[in-house]
Design a protein that fits this description.
301 residues, alpha/beta, Rossmann fold, Hypothetical Protein Yjia, Chain: A,domain 2, binds guanosine-5'-triphosphate, P-loop_NTPase, hydrolase, CobW/HypB/UreG_nucleotide-bd
Length: 301
Amino acid sequence: MIDVYLLSGFLGSGKTSLLQHLIKQWKAEGKLPAVIMNEFGKLPFDSGAVDGDVPLKELLQGCICCTGSEKTEAQIQSLLLEHNPDVILIETTGAAHPVEALDAVMSPLYADRLQFKGIVSVADSKLWLEKEKLSPQVRMLFLEQLRHAHLILLNKSDLLDENELSTVTSGIQMINDHAMVIQTVHGKLPLSFLKQMIPNVNNSDVTKTRIGNELHLSAKLIKFESTVKMENFENWVRNLPSTVYRMKGHVLIEGQKYPMLFQYAYGMVQWLPEYIKMEPQIVLIGENLKEIEWLRGMAHA
Ligand SMILES: Nc1nc2c(ncn2[C@@H]2O[C@H](COP(=O)(O)OP(=O)(O)OP(=O)(O)O)[C@@H](O)[C@H]2O)c(=O)[nH]1
């Protein structure tokens, strides 16, 4: 049987970091992991994060739980036929309800070949401490992703002190007392924790909440028409409303040869140089994106 894990967790919590770390460990064991990646927004920004030799299928049309199960079924079927992997990792969008996503991936079509090991949820520990600032619907999604998990990563634990970490751990255990909670930095989870998971997922676990219908999360693609000064760009980022949860992509910064990789999650900005020319565009994910004023040099696509 092929083990299947569903990776859940809110926008920018560290799912891709976890995915990369797990892939590395499986490959070191001589195993072939395959990935199904569901991005919010139509841009495959994260697919480059997975090594070229790892079979990858993308679902870009929206949330795995809202687009229905047929496309997911087809992607899983073709992974099985074309690659015969040892393990399948399904990375859901940060906007997906884990149980609905699980519903979308469970199908009698391949029930005899796949073994669903469960939901691994990544929590941004800093966000937990600031969750009251989230809108009620988004906060509910954040909590649901943790409530239904079988294993929880308290990621970004490097950003918290000991007291804060124990507050987060006990808070999470209060809403989910059956999952193991592990503190991580950059999703560095030893594979042994996944292997220990006992498959306990079946269709009766699936109760539809349709939380997705109430969420007003949207994604917006911004293209850059010219270079921008890093200082101006960062000022613009600082002044964005707190309902912009996640941004990622490439920005053409003055003085740089190639557009730089830009990542943003809950007030934290990260820049990395690129050594090839990537399209200068970023995707924003959040609520009320229509109200945002764009920086000069950006084309609002
Ligand atoms: N300080 C710190 N930063 C982290 C940690 N884990 C991830 N990050 C940063 O957080 C940002 C988001 O990480 P990703 O792994 O891309 O998160 P994600 O959940 O895949 O994001 P989406 O797929 O867009 O929802 C990146 O800038 C990471 O470098 C961590 O443990 N500590």
